[in-house]
Amino acid sequence: MKKILFITPRMVKYGSEYSLFWILRRLTKYRAILLSGQKGELIRRLPPQIKVYIDPLQRPIDYYINFLCKKILKTTISEVYLEKIIRKEKPDACVLNTIITLKWIPVIKKYDVPVGVFVHELYSAYEHIPSRDLNLLMDETEFVICPSIETCERLRQAGYNKKIFLFQEPIDTDDISFDSSYFLDLRNKYDFILGMSGVFCNFKGARLVTKIASYLKQRNIALIWLGKILDTGLTALIMRQIKNLRLDNFVLIGEKDGKEYYSILNQIDGMLFTSIEDTYPIAVLEALYLQKPVITFNSGGVSEMIKEGMGRVVPLYDFDALFQAIDDLVNNRIKINRELMRNFALHHDIKSRIQTFEAILQEGFA
Fold it and tell me: Which residues contact 202 (CB under 8 A, 6 or more apart)?
């Protein structure tokens, strides 16, 4: 059985790393080895047969040692550690998860190990990597995997002329369970409850909340937000606006996990997906599995997801169209096909798609 070394930034509860997590749990034709930049929450839930390595650069003192190492030896602690793993494990190939990990390509190529990249990002993430890493992606990889047609097109337009595979983000329906008796107190006060899921940050549309919540309050509609709350000035600014404007119909619930998360998500009447840029959002797949209609900006791959009967996609930043879509949903003017939603989500279940992913690896590294 061939060995594949997977490298991921942190293995935390973000969509790109949940995607890898579900894939690793279902791999059967390859032996997986994982190198993670941090010991994220998802690592402890991996099967015991997957050997896991954690980047040694963790403590403040490590960064000082790393500075000396780079200055004197012209390398880093992390690079030395990766070389040690490659020499020990002798992987047949390497898959990098997200463009954040492109920096490891020169080390991997020293050992003639072929590299594929799972590219989850559209545009904004490229601002956070150096141009050298983009050139490595374009010139030094054997293939890329993209979760949406739009992601594939961005790379083709840039001249990527190697293998590009489309593999939409998966979910694992075995992880979706909820308490049907769970009750949101907001139900006693509001006529309709919309929900958003994702990290409360700018690219997820956090800065749009005040405008949206103001409109919703006039119609006695609540908006809840499930997801990690970052301790930033942006979060503080928005929450002060919410308090000052008395927008008590907006509730920032925070990060929930497992059954509690899905129990809350199951209580909403529809998803209002406010993201400004998203490749192929897992949160939308989860909402569709729970048969919740989705109103969303055209923020990327979501336009490839929402069909007639599932909700509505409106142009980015077109608030008139967004508010009209909300009104149409509340007043039953949007055709809803709940069976279509569930079946679409089931099509993305990793249990039925892992063979496709393994075939991509086989062809990509051929």
Answer: 234, 276
3 state DSSP class of 222: strand
Alpha carbon distance 42, 154 (integer Å): 30
Mean pLDDT by 10 residues, the chain (366 residues): 96 96 97 97 96 90 77 85 97 98 97 98 94 97 97 96 97 96 92 97 96 98 97 97 98 94 97 96 98 97 97 98 98 97 98 97 96
d(CA 101, CA 99): 5
Q: Going by C-beta distance under 8 Å and a sequence separation of 6 or more, which residues neighbour residue 309?
A: 335, 336, 337, 340, 341
**Burial class, 142, CB count within 10 angstroms (exposed 0-12 / middle 13-18 / buried 19+):** middle
- Cα 224 to chain centroid distance, Å, stands at 19
Is-contact 6 32, C-beta < 8 A? yes
- Count, residues in the chain: 366
What is the model's pTM? 0.95
DSSP three-state, residue 332: coil
Nearest alpha carbon to residue 222 among 336, 326, 341, 333:
326
